[in-house]
Amino acid sequence: MLTPDMLKLDDVTKTYRVGALGGKAVTAVDRVSFDVRAGEVVSLIGESGSGKSTIGRMVLGLTPVTSGSITVAGAPVRPGRAYYRSVQGVFQDPFSCYNPVFKADRVFRLIKETYHPGVPEDEWAERVRAAVRDVRLNPGEVLGKYPHQLSGGQLQRLLIARALLLDLKLLVADEITSMLDASTRVDVLNLLADLKTRGLAVLYVTHDLALGTYLAERTVVLWRGTVVERGPTEQVFGDPLHPYTRRLLAAVPRLHAPWEDAPEVRSCPYHDVGGTGGLAEATPGHFVACARLSDCRGDVP
Amino acid sequence: MSLTVTDLRVSYQTLRGEVRALDGVSFTVADGEILGLAGESGCGKTTLGKSLIRLDGRMRHAGGTVELDGRELPIGDDRAMNAFRFREVSLVPQYSMSALNPTRRIGRMVAELLRSRGETLDRAKLETRLGQVGLPREVLDRYPIELSGGMKQRVVMVVSTLLDPSLLIADEITSALDVSTQQAVARALAGFRDAGHVRSMVFITHDLALTARIADTIMVMYAGMLAEKAPAKTMVEQPRHPYTRMLVDALPEVGARHAGRRLTGIAGSPPALLDPPPGCRFRERCPLADDGCAERPPVTEVAPGHHVACWKV
Ligand SMILES: Nc1ncnc2c1ncn2[C@@H]1O[C@H](COP(=O)(O)OP(=O)(O)OP(=O)(O)O)[C@@H](O)[C@H]1O
Ligand code: SF4
Ligand SMILES: [Mg+2]
């Protein structure tokens, strides 16, 4: 079946100005391209500071791109009510997303007023409770509370519930399960998997490889703002080519086995590969790059 | 004995009543020990961490004692606790990385922080410590945005242990890091303990696999109470509490695919802590529950150092 690109990033770059008078430029995202189809989960893996949250913010129109283009369902990002009805983000640090003086039920009320004014009250109340239960929270416990009265994981799940109440087409999920324990995480992931079969496109930003592989058809590995490897999840993790990806796999904490020592990477074997945009196609759909084409001396992190 | 917590009770005051976030928790942490504190979101991990250093305005010390190196911590008395904070007990809070002021250079921020605690900055010591976690001294001249998440987290760790506290509480400090940085940070923490910069540590995380790698002992909480506490290896290999057993089973391994096998979580959610039901708090979700569980199960030591709160062990 031909599924249209829901989200497409083409050579996207983002630079920030920092320091007194913005005298210094920091490149947070450097010529990144990939796409997410309807009904597909793509996981974007990288550490905090690698640019993955910046990508999420650009997709949501919270910050402009410096160059390159982002399209959603073929149209450029256009922040506004119509856009946010179908494109939503859930972020890592739940405390920064909530207005501290709003109770949780007020947040849901705003969603109704903005997006679903025609829905009858009792039906809406039931929808809210169902969404809250879907994320494994107890409506009676959380709805009457202010953000500071909830734990990190409770807030994180309320944000997911909030996103579920819209007519979502694309969800940017940035570390949405980072504060949840294993069992709750599994519930949230299964919930995303169900939504995916209903056609939702998900950009699943995470540092947790096990969770990424569980859900995602394709994986993009980001390192210091650039894509170092991307392709079908089985290939990226089954046959990792880039030294950084290999390092990540070695560092996954396992319940029953000691930590593997990260493989020593003496020289980056890819620093002279050609290919467009610094990415070479190793096998169909599986792309790999030198960590830093211009200054790679083999000393990957 | 470094830390001894006895029957600690802490609640939050809300308009609807008291939320009993910690409801009688007892445990000890020995000199040189790293205690991993795990459990479902909302079970009280952050509350426990905060209780050992600063109760915020809405928290109330409802009972129990905390003793550090033989001295009782005046946890209910905010002013009296000042003498201990940072010097005896230090906390790296959840989300501390994102709390770094983006407009200040790291070095200046550290100096200001120390000044606010009435201490002056020992630059040489700071640089040595940064070196020990693999950070060049140049980070002090950088802005937070120029550092990766792992670097920021290491800066925060170094700063909070600069005065060599006896106890360090680290609350979810690795949850936003990629796995390789997580490994580096976790090892750096253990290194601090080995070097004696801190004597013992409470490492809070929801990630059992990670705790298993760095903690000596793991304590699992459930709805404001202790469920199980055991040496790390025992906890992951022979958990005894039904909740811990289900938690261990819910962990996906790398490579597990949703299409292959659908993992299952634990159905249901923890009870509200506003007016918690009597008896075992896991009862509603426990496959082994019976009428006897309507009474609160005592914490029993089933093997040396292995404590379980369940009638069925
Ligand atoms: N200020 C507050 N007022 C009322 N209840 C609160 C307050 N802060 C926390 N709680 C409640 O206390 C319980 C314990 O919260 P705590 O933050 O300690 O959980 P946690 O184990 O750290 O969770 P997480 O893993 O999600 O960070 C939760 O049920 C939470 O809703
Ligand atoms: S005491 Fe009863 S309900 Fe509680 S964990 Fe044990 S068997 Fe289950
Ligand atoms: Mg917490």
From TrEMBL, chain A:
<dbReference type="InterPro" id="IPR013563">
    <property type="entry name" value="Oligopep_ABC_C"/>
</dbReference>
<keyword id="KW-0813">Transport</keyword>
<dbReference type="InterPro" id="IPR017871">
    <property type="entry name" value="ABC_transporter-like_CS"/>
</dbReference>
<dbReference type="Pfam" id="PF00005">
    <property type="entry name" value="ABC_tran"/>
</dbReference>
<dbReference type="GO" id="GO:0005524">
    <property type="term" value="F:ATP binding"/>
</dbReference>
<dbReference type="Pfam" id="PF08352">
    <property type="entry name" value="oligo_HPY"/>
</dbReference>
<keyword id="KW-0547">Nucleotide-binding</keyword>
<feature type="domain" description="ABC transporter">
    <location>
        <begin position="7"/>
        <end position="249"/>
    </location>
</feature>
<protein>
    <submittedName>
        <fullName>Peptide/nickel transport system ATP-binding protein</fullName>
    </submittedName>
</protein>
<keyword id="KW-0067">ATP-binding</keyword>
<dbReference type="InterPro" id="IPR027417">
    <property type="entry name" value="P-loop_NTPase"/>
</dbReference>
<dbReference type="InterPro" id="IPR003439">
    <property type="entry name" value="ABC_transporter-like_ATP-bd"/>
</dbReference>
<dbReference type="InterPro" id="IPR003593">
    <property type="entry name" value="AAA+_ATPase"/>
</dbReference>
Automatic annotation (TrEMBL), chain B:
<keyword id="KW-0067">ATP-binding</keyword>
<dbReference type="Pfam" id="PF00005">
    <property type="entry name" value="ABC_tran"/>
</dbReference>
<keyword id="KW-0813">Transport</keyword>
<dbReference type="Pfam" id="PF08352">
    <property type="entry name" value="oligo_HPY"/>
</dbReference>
<dbReference type="InterPro" id="IPR027417">
    <property type="entry name" value="P-loop_NTPase"/>
</dbReference>
<dbReference type="InterPro" id="IPR013563">
    <property type="entry name" value="Oligopep_ABC_C"/>
</dbReference>
<dbReference type="InterPro" id="IPR003593">
    <property type="entry name" value="AAA+_ATPase"/>
</dbReference>
<feature type="domain" description="ABC transporter">
    <location>
        <begin position="3"/>
        <end position="248"/>
    </location>
</feature>
<keyword id="KW-0547">Nucleotide-binding</keyword>
<dbReference type="InterPro" id="IPR017871">
    <property type="entry name" value="ABC_transporter-like_CS"/>
</dbReference>
<protein>
    <submittedName>
        <fullName>Peptide/nickel transport system ATP-binding protein</fullName>
    </submittedName>
</protein>
<dbReference type="InterPro" id="IPR003439">
    <property type="entry name" value="ABC_transporter-like_ATP-bd"/>
</dbReference>
<dbReference type="GO" id="GO:0005524">
    <property type="term" value="F:ATP binding"/>
</dbReference>
